[in-house]
Structure formats: C-alpha cells, structure tokens
Amino acid sequence: LKNADTAMYHAKQRGNHYLFFNDSMNEQAVKRLQIENLMRFGLKEDHFVVYYQPKMDIKTGRLVGMEALVRFITPKKGIISPGIFIPIAEETGQIIEIGEVVLDKACKDVKRWIDQGLFDGRVAVNLSAKQFSLPDLTTRIDIILQKNQLPSYFLELEITEGTIMDDPQEAISIMRSLSARGIHLAIDDFGTGYSSLAYLKQFPLNTLKVDKAFVDDMSSERGRNMVDSIVTIAHNLDLHVVAEGVEKAEQLSALEQLNCQTIQGYFYSKPLCAADFTSFLRAQKQR
Ligand code: C2E
Ligand code: CA
Ligand code: CA
Ligand code: CA
C-alpha cells in the first residue's frame, strides 16, 4: 500500500488519478489513512480500552481465566472493531504501542481483581507478530509486569499460528524465554493457518485455542470429527484446550463429549468492560 499511496500522490499531482485508481480503491486508501490518523490521536488521548471475555470450565461452569480484547472508542466515529483497525495497525507498526497499552491495562485490572480476592487465574493477552519479533520483547513485558506489580504467573500470551510459523526456530527461542518467566503461551486460531505438526511439539506451549470457524462447523459430523482430531492432537501434546466462539448449548455438549475443558464464547458471555467484568467476578464468587 505504500507504493499505492505514492502512485496516488503522483496521479493526483497530475490531476488524473482516475487513470490509476477506481473510486473504491481510492476510498479504501483514504479510509486506511483516516484510521491510521485516528489511532495516532487515540493513542495520545487514551481511546483504547480493554474488554474481558470469560473462559469457563465446561464441567463446573466456573471461571478459569479471561481474554483481554482491545476496543477502540473514538469520540466521533464510535467504536471501531478490532477486525478493522488491527490489520492496519499491524501494517503501520502502531500495533506495538497499542499492544503495550492493552498489556499495561490488563495487568493493572487483573492486579486489582487479585488484590480484591475476586480472581486468581491468568489473563490472556494477544501478542501481534510485530510485537513478537521485537528484539527486546521480554524486557518490555518484564517492565510492564513490574510496573503493575503483577507476577508473571498471572499472564498468558496468545500467539497466532502465522506468527510462530514465520520463523519457527526463532519463535522457539523467544517462546522459551517467555516460558522461563512462568508466562503461559497459547497458540491462537489453531487450524486456520499453515501449522506444522512437526513443529507443534517443539514449541513450549501450554494451551491450544480451537478457532471459532471449527466450532461453527460442529453441526455436521465431519465438523465434529475435525474438532475431535484437533483436541486429540492437543491432548497428546499435553496441551490445555480452549474452544472459542461457543454460542449454542449444542456446541457446548458436543465439546464436552470431546473432552474439551475450557469454553469461551457468547454462550457464557460477550467481552465485558472492566466494570461489568468486576460484577461478573462478584457473581461468580457467590456461586
Ligand atoms: P481472537 O483473538 O480470535 O479473539 C476472539 C474474537 O472472537 C473476539 O473478537 C471475540 O469478541 C469474538 N468472540 C468470542 N466469542 C464469540 C462468540 O461466541 N461469537 C462471536 N460471533 N464472536 C465471538 P474481537 O474482540 O472483535 O477481536 C477480533 C480479533 O482482533 C481477535 O481475534 C484478535 O485477533 C484481534 N485482537 C483483539 N484484541 C487484540 C489485542 O489487544 N492485540 C492484538 N494483537 N490483537 C487483538
Ligand atoms: Ca486471541
Ligand atoms: Ca482466537
Ligand atoms: Ca479467532
């Protein structure tokens, strides 16, 4: 897109940009630039907020952890979905700063919930490819944990298949240094990228997250068999399994039959803002 921007600039200079760009391409580039600017402003003005989605034990129905999910709340355009701004932030590199804001806020919130006696599990934070390949990643994480006085035991990082398969050998060494600190590691969106089973057993992983797409397919026998295979592979590798995007009771019982322990999805709860998540934790305590 950098080249496209340059081409558009030159085309505009000559006043004939229709030669190079149809309206929809032009519109897209403008939108992208708008969001990039909004994000720059939003980082300054603290417009990035963290929501939390519970991860529940399928057998006991109790909370075992949560995933931190970023929300971009702009004064003029309302909430912009991560599906829209994360890919752009990845491209521009702004994801590094956004990711650190999310980690910092998640650590702060979880520290408070622990101190209040409301929680003692792990918070899972998504780590982007750009963050993962920072040479000083572990130091950056250490600093944020220390600043919030949160022991690394309470942190889990979700890393997508694509991120770790880019350079598996390098990934293994980065993951080892995170794992050595007691940070748990989850492979996210499993099955949607080009995962290599040969590598899977070499990564120091704790958790495998079954992507929502597979959960959606569980109404068919083939779909259930697919999830069965994934769960079996995970268990053979001693990985904890989390199924995401669970919305229906049928999916829940199918997953229970396949021995999938942990569930995340609208069936239990949508992602909640910190205040609503506090209420969720309080209600859990009273069970
Ligand atoms: P993800 O990591 O796969 O997160 C799960 C997504 O599925 C979340 O979307 C969540 O709200 C949604 N979800 C959970 N349960 C259900 C369900 O039952 N039904 C449906 N329809 N959706 C469900 P969200 O919050 O919009 O985030 C989308 C993606 O954006 C995430 O996918 C993740 O890849 C990325 N993302 C979100 N926050 C961050 C962040 O702080 N850092 C980075 N690097 N990426 C993030
Ligand atoms: Ca995730
Ligand atoms: Ca996921
Ligand atoms: Ca997903």
UniProtKB/TrEMBL annotation:
Q: Which domain of life is it from?
A: Bacteria
Domain (EAL) spans 32-285
Q: What is this protein called?
A: GGDEF domain-containing protein
